[in-house]
Design brief:
The complex is a heterodimer of chains A (234) and B (238).
Chain A (H helix, E strand, L loop, with lengths): L1 H15 L3 H34 L5 H11 L4 H12 L14 H37 L4 H11 L1 H16 L3 H7 L9 H11 L2 H26 L8
Chain B lengths: L7 E10 L2 E11 L4 E5 L6 H9 L6 E6 L3 H6 L1 E4 L10 H11 L4 H14 L15 H13 L5 E5 L7 H16 L3 E6 L2 H7 L2 E6 L2 E7 H6 L4 H7 L6
Parallel strand pairs in B: 3-7, 3-8, 5-6, 6-7
Antiparallel strand pairs in B: 1-2, 1-4, 8-9
Helix pairs in contact in B: 3-4, 3-5, 5-6
Classes of the chains: A mainly alpha (234), B alpha/beta (238).
């Protein structure tokens, strides 16, 4: 119990004094996870929507694989990205290993299937509702996808936030490809792992509380910002 | 735009779903003008027939042939569903949507939207979400959205099925107006009163087959078949 109390105190102290390290680590966490979220959404939202309204031969297989990929173990993703980016790997010349870019790449791979799958689930229902009308109006496929994305934006937000939640709390992959280097690739989760290992539970807990508050804050602010329509079923 | 007259011919049209024949074989021609009412009890194939003509339901065998090229035919048609499908947007955006798909100019879209909103008496509701309208208002909006592209052919699938007298009258007025201005209307209903008020000719369906096709006058005054007579008498036919 003592540790938790000390942790709360530590968190309070860190935030109140705007501890320079804490601010840097927090901003890097945000930068990595938000970049990953934006990039993953650019791929995943149209892909999930397309999957909801397309009929092709291996559709069931594609959906099943996508759902399976939602549970992709981050450590394995980290390992593979590490091998690809390491000096001897195919993309070694880019010198990306142990940079925030590498961490973003790993997180994009982890959250894209998740966002695409939730998008697909949500869009399937909307498509069932709109199907007859959009077919009757003789719309093109890209027009259909755009219409669904626009009118289903509320549910897409949920999908994106689920992706963000997974990215911001993820530690296995970014630890491997980022290396937890102070002032370079250290983020909240890897810092927590480090402090726990060092036995500095108060600081680890403090960082933990900051992480939770950050996730809450981002969720609340995205909801507040995007609430352009307040009517029930949008 | 299609300027030619559009007539349509069905040749041995059949729909088979899971081994049972739900429509056909149908052989018939619909002329390029007029107000055709498709009559028949539930499950007689009215919706299937409209969807086949509209090109959204595939035939198992047989042919639908329009007097113009298929692409042009699809472009010049509109369809109003029994249960109005509202986009989760405002009334204004619902009306503008078909025109946006065709990439009309913004000012042109706005003019059309204002015009049609006034015709369906929803000019004060333009910024309200369409999903919050009443059933009658939704169906009027669906009809305006179908007519806003100025289609040559308009299909309606029991558009007044769940509406009260006033909404029905408003919709019938809109339909009569657009028919008078040259839109070909093909409408399914099982409301005999409505058929008498609107039809110029009748297609009577039973069990997926055309039992009778004639002008409205002939159909109501001198039916050819026993089933049609029974239907008009208000007997329950199966």
């Amino acid at each position: 119990m003592n540790e938790i109390w000390a942790g709360i105190q530590a968190a309070f102290r860190l935030i109140m004094t705007l501890d320079a390290d804490l601010v840097e680590i927090t901003l890097r966490s945000l930068q990595v996870s938000l970049s990953a979220l934006v990039i993953a959404s650019i791929f995943a939202l149209p892909f999930g929507t397309w999957l909801a309204l397309s009929r092709f031969r291996f559709r069931r297989t594609a959906i099943a694989s996508l759902n399976a990929l939602m549970g992709l173990p981050p450590v394995v993703v980290g390992l593979i990205v590490y091998l690809l980016l390491s000096r001897s790997g195919p993309f070694g010349v880019l010198g990306l290993l142990f940079t925030p870019t590498a961490m973003i790449i790993a997180q994009v791979i982890i959250i894209t299937p998740l966002i695409a799958s939730i998008t697909h689930q949500a869009m399937r229902e909307l498509w069932a509702e709109y199907h007859d009308l959009l077919i009757s109006l003789n719309s093109t496929k890209s027009q259909r996808i755009l219409t669904l994305i626009r009118d289903g934006r509320r549910t897409l937000l949920t999908a994106a936030l689920a992706g963000f939640g997974r990215a911001i709390g993820e530690v296995g992959a970014i630890m491997i490809v980022g290396g937890n280097i102070d002032n370079a690739t250290r983020v909240l989760t890897t810092a927590i792992a480090l402090e726990t290992g060092k036995g500095d539970f108060a600081l680890a807990l403090g960082l933990g509380f900051v992480l939770i508050m950050l996730a809450l804050l981002v969720n609340i602010s995205i909801h507040a910002l995007s609430r352009t329509e307040r009517e029930g079923r949008w | 735009m299609v300027t030619q007259q559009m007539s349509v011919t069905l040749k041995q049209a059949v729909i088979t779903r899971r081994g049972t024949r739900t429509l056909g074989p149908i052989n018939m021609t619909l002329a390029a003008t007029g107000f055709t009412i498709v009559l028949g009890p539930n499950g007689s194939g009215k919706t299937s027939l409209l969807k086949v003509l509209h090109g959204v339901e595939r035939l198992s065998s047989g042919l639908v042939t329009w007097s113009v090229a298929d692409v042009d035919a699809r472009q010049a048609q509109a369809y109003v569903f029994q249960k109005p499908i509202m986009l989760r947007r405002s009334v204004r955006q619902n009306l503008a949507y078909p025109l946006q798909l065709r990439k009309f100019h913004k000012s042109q879209i706005n003019a059309c939207v204002e015009d049609w909103a006034e015709r369906i008496n929803l000019q004060d509701a333009l910024n309200r979400p369409a999903t919050r309208l009443s059933g009658g208002e939704q169906q009027k909006l669906a009809l305006a959205r179908a007519l806003i592209r100025d289609p040559k052919v308009l299909f309606l699938d029991e558009p007044c099925a769940n509406l009260d007298g006033r909404s029905t009258r408003e919709i019938e007025t809109l339909l009569r107006d657009s028919c008078a201005s040259g839109t070909r209307i093909i409408m399914a209903t099982h409301d005999l009163g409505q058929a008498r008020r609107l039809a110029s000719d009748i297609v009577f369906l039973l069990d997926g087959n055309v039992r009778e096709q004639s002008t409205a006058k002939d159909f109501f005054d001198a039916q050819q078949t026993v089933e049609a007579r029974a239907f008009l008498n208000g007997d329950i036919i199966e």
